[in-house]
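Our preliminary data section would be incomplete without showing what the modeling component actually yields. Below, a chain of 134 amino acids is followed by its predicted structure, encoded as tokens that our downstream tools consume directly.
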Amino acid sequence: MNDDTPPQPQDTTPPASDTNVRDHLANERTLLAWSRTAVAIMALGFVVARFGLLIRELGPGQPQRLPTGTSTVFGVVLVLLGTALLVLGTVRYLRVGEAIQNRAFRWSPGLGLALGGLLLLTGLVLAIYLILTA
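Predicted structure:
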């Protein structure tokens, strides 16, 4: 028997198991959590910037302890931090997805610790800002 059909390329992707599917879905939920956090930080930045503008418009006779653009600077920094967080979360999603697919995932708490530290620092800076503008 002479079979003239060319050899078919073999799929080297491991078959999708229930565990593999659950891991990928969990990775997507994690990306959504990072995205929600990023959007919340950006929204906080917008509110801080606009609230400072509102205070300047409503109280022109009040003595100012900080320069007039301070709240705008804080707001823009928060929006940029939220944007950076979204980028980092997306990069992490892609790396973890590839590691899950290759069955080579290793736990790395670095990005989570960085986010916690960043949020802690943001809270402290905003608290100081509120004290100085009270």
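The CA atoms of residues 21 and 100 lie 9 Å apart. The two ends are 91 Å apart (CA to CA). Preliminary results of this kind motivate Aim 1 of the renewal.
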